[in-house]
């Protein structure tokens, strides 16, 4: 077993057994809800346990929406909770994964709670401003088998904002562009051909600043597993949130939902 694989063992066990093993290792926090940008009703089965939960990474913002990030209503809540719940419903419909109907906001400062949630989704990471402790916790989480999907950031300036914290998480690991033949693009749906997933607020152009060219990027561990996936110059969250909005391009919703399925299945099987 490689050093990386041995570090991943506790979190991989959580992936394999869902919530059954979690309490034996760490105290799993219950569902919680914050003020968000995308309203959604609380599903009737919100409190039914499941083996997989869409984790939504909370973070302090450097700029953007003001307020206390611990109370919600800041940049980490864009497309939340509506987009997350639509995506959870689509995962239920399109896979055999036992998915909880509601997301889980995850705070890196909550002790070891992050290790209960093997898949984390973060939006607008161009504005995140992680503390030193949060940087260290996120690095440990990823090296032990966690998966982070970064989405909804466009152009040179927002990329630099993203790397201001991600470069501290992994200063010694390069960002690579995923080739068309990568397993991520075929683990469930075939995405050997892809197009930009547009941002709703900037339609019909669909992107901000100089972010016209979609990129699918990653940071890999020592075994070439994706730890951090970057849906750069794309907005998967909008494709989930606006799946039923006739103003939003249907082909973008189809791609965003199915590509999201690929990310989840890849994260759970690699």
Give a verbal description of the structure.
The protein is an alpha/beta fold and 270 residues long. It has one domain: Rossmann fold. The chain contains seven helices and seven strands. Strands 2-1-3-4-7-6-5 form a seven-stranded mixed β-sheet. Helix 4 crosses helix 5 (155-169).
**Strand ordering within the main sheet:** 2-1-3-4-7-6-5
Instruction: Indicate the proportion of strand residues.
Output: 5-15%
What is the terminal separation in angstroms?
15 Å
Radius of gyration: 17 Å
Named CATH architecture: 3-Layer(aba) Sandwich
CATH-assigned fold name: Rossmann fold
Instruction: Name the helicity range.
Output: 25-40%
The CATH class designation is Alpha Beta
Number of strands: 7
Throw out a few tags for this protein:
single chain; 270 residues; alpha/beta; Rossmann fold; seven-stranded mixed beta sheet; 7 helices; globular
Quick take:
With 270 residues, this protein is an alpha/beta fold.
Strand-helix topology:
Layout: H1 3-17, H2 22-25, E1 55-57, H3 82-94, E2 104-106, E3 119-123, H4 132-143, E4 147-151, H5 155-169, E5 176-177, E6 215-220, E7 226-232, H6 236-241, H7 250-269
Helix pairs in contact: 3-7, 4-5
């Amino acid at each position: 077993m490689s050093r990386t694989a041995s570090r991943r063992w506790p979190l991989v066990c959580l992936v394999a057994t869902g919530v059954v093993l979690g309490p034996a290792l760490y105290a799993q926090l219950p569902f919680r809800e914050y003020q968000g940008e995308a309203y959604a009703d609380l599903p009737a089965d919100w409190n039914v346990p499941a083996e997989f939960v869409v984790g939504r990474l909370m973070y302090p913002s450097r700029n953007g929406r003001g307020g206390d990030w611990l109370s919600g209503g800041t940049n980490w809540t864009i497309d939340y909770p509506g987009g997350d719940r639509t995506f959870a419903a689509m995962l239920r419909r399109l896979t055999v994964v036992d998915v909880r109907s509601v997301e889980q906001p995850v705070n890196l400062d909550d002790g070891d709670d992050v290790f209960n949630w093997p898949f984390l989704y973060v939006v607008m990471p161009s504005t995140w401003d992680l503390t030193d402790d949060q940087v260290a916790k996120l690095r440990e989480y990823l090296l032990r088998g966690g998966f982070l999907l970064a989405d909804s950031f466009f152009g040179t300036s927002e990329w630099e904002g993203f790397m201001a914290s991600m470069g501290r998480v992994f200063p010694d690991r390069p960002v690579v562009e995923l080739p068309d033949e990568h397993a991520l693009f075929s683990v469930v749906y075939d995405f050997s051909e892809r197009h930009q997933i547009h941002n709703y607020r900037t339609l019909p152009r669909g992107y901000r600043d100089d972010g016209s060219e979609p990129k699918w990027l990653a940071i890999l561990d020592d075994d070439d597993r994706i730890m951090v996936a970057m849906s750069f110059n794309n907005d998967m969250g909008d494709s989930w949130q606006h799946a039923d909005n006739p103003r939003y391009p249907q082909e973008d919703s189809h791609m965003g939902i199915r590509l999201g399925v690929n990310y989840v299945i890849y994260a759970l099987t690699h």
